[in-house]
Write a structure and sequence with these properties.
This protein is α/β, with parallel strands linked by helices and 368 residues long. The chain has helices spanning 5-8, 25-40, 44-69, 87-103, 118-125, 139-148, 184-193, 208-220, 232-241, 251-259, 307-321, 324-331, 342-362; strands spanning 76-80, 107-111, 133-138, 160-176, 199-202, 225-228, 246-250, 263-268, 294-302, 336-341. Helix content is 45%, strand content 18%. Strands 1, 2, 3, 4, 5, 6, 7, 8, 9 and 10 form a ten-stranded mixed sheet that branches. Strand 5 (199-202), helix 8 (208-220) and strand 6 (225-228) form a beta-alpha-beta unit. The chain starts with a helix and ends in a 6-residue tail after the last helix.
Length: 368
């Protein structure tokens, strides 16, 4: 026979008497059943272990909250995927210094160059998502890598959380002094009258100014011939010598050559005219709407970084970009501040990838 409802509930049935000189039968039953239960789960030591685990979990939760509130509690490494001395490295160091002062911490730049920025970007993508390894990215490793390379070990849109676009160093379309056209309209007319005779140089196949030159071909309906070089210096050397007619290069690099009369500026690849070249029109106002290009820089963190740390970095970055001191510091290097943060920057990045992928497809550029 099974237990009655009363016995199952631990309530003494009406006709059952308590054992004389001892506990009531229900209490005795509970005491007796507890003994095998404690033996089964290790006795009192087991429950002490459970309590310890709960306390450790609570401490870890509080510690995580405190670490976000105290961020940065130790040195933060800002990875630059290029060698020291270039525009990316220089502006990163200025930004790291400003962020150190704003957040009362220590932000240092660490260079991890190679593979057009892919090595440094991949290092950050695979780093601990704790806010202590950041990527000060240039555009190639985020917007061009998946377009121009066969294999990229990270997804620029999924493996990072964007903090903000920092700014850009725009391209200027420049030409040899011996080349007859003096503006974009004249260049387009000349190229149409002399198809295949105009050449443009680049830093190398699949680089940012190569794709800018190809986009000019597509948008203007012309056919200029690409001549790849290994970097900016040899490219500009041949433009100055007249061996190549035109190229796109950053304003930081070409401004001294323009001012000294060694090359001439035809147009700037910016939404508005730039202060350093007030008499040079944009490509947009010259007949190619929304034609922009250049090197841009952004602050990224690995996917999975705690929201509280992302918030702290976002707030401090916005304050740095709004400061007159930082603007003055980077203005010397030709950088135009562009504070596009969070999801707005995610949309900007997606647009950049789509733009260059479309150009690559139109000119049948095969990933290397």
């Amino acid at each position: 026979m099974g237990m009655t409802l009363g016995q199952a509930d631990g309530v003494r049935a009406p006709n059952s008497a308590a054992p004389s000189g001892g506990l009531p039968s229900s209490a005795a039953a509970r005491s007796a059943s507890a003994v095998p239960l404690m033996k089964r789960f290790g006795g009192a030591g087991f429950w002490r272990l459970v309590l310890l685990v709960v306390l450790l979990g609570l401490m870890q939760s509080l510690g995580g909250r405190a670490s976000a509130e105290d961020y940065p509690a130790r040195v933060v490494r800002m990875i630059v995927a290029y060698t020291a001395g270039g525009t990316t490295d220089t502006t990163a160091r200025l930004f790291a210094q400003a962020l150190s002062e704003k957040m009362h911490g220590t932000f240092i730049v660490e260079n991890r160059p190679g593979a057009s920025g892919i090595i440094g970007a991949n290092y950050v993508a695979k780093s601990a998502a704790d806010g202590y390894t950041l990527l000060y990215s240039a555009s190639p490793e985020l917007s061009l890598a998946t377009v121009t390379k066969k294999s990229v070990p990270y997804d620029p849109e999924k493996d990072f959380i964007p903090i903000s676009l920092i700014g850009s160093v725009p391209f200027v379309l420049v030409a040899s002094k011996q080349f007859p056209p003096n503006n974009l309209g004249e260049l387009i007319d000349y190229a149409k009258k002399h198809p295949g005779s105009v050449t443009f140089s680049s830093f190398g196949t699949g680089t940012s100014n190569h794709l800018a030159g190809e986009m000019l071909n597509v948008r203007a309906g012309i056919k200029t011939v690409h001549v790849p070089y290994r970097g900016s210096a040899p490219s500009l050397t041949d433009v100055m010598a007249g061996r190549v007619q035109v190229t796109f290069d950053t304003i930081t690099t070409v401004l001294p050559l323009i001012e000294s009369g060694q090359i001439k500026a035809l147009a700037v690849a910016t939404p508005e005219r730039v202060k350093a070249l007030p008499n040079v029109p944009t490509l947009s106002e010259s007949g190619l709407p929304d034609f922009t290009g250049g090197a841009w820089f952004a602050l990224m963190v690995p996917a999975g970084t705690p929201p509280a740390i992302v918030s702290e970095l976002s707030k401090a970055t916005a304050e740095v970009l709004a400061s007159a001191e930082f603007k003055k510091a980077v203005d010397v290097h030709g950088m135009v501040i562009q504070n596009i943060a969070g999801q707005a920057f995610s949309r900007y990045l997606s647009g950049e990838i789509d733009k260059w992928r479309t150009v690559a497809q139109q000119v049948r550029l095969e990933p290397q």
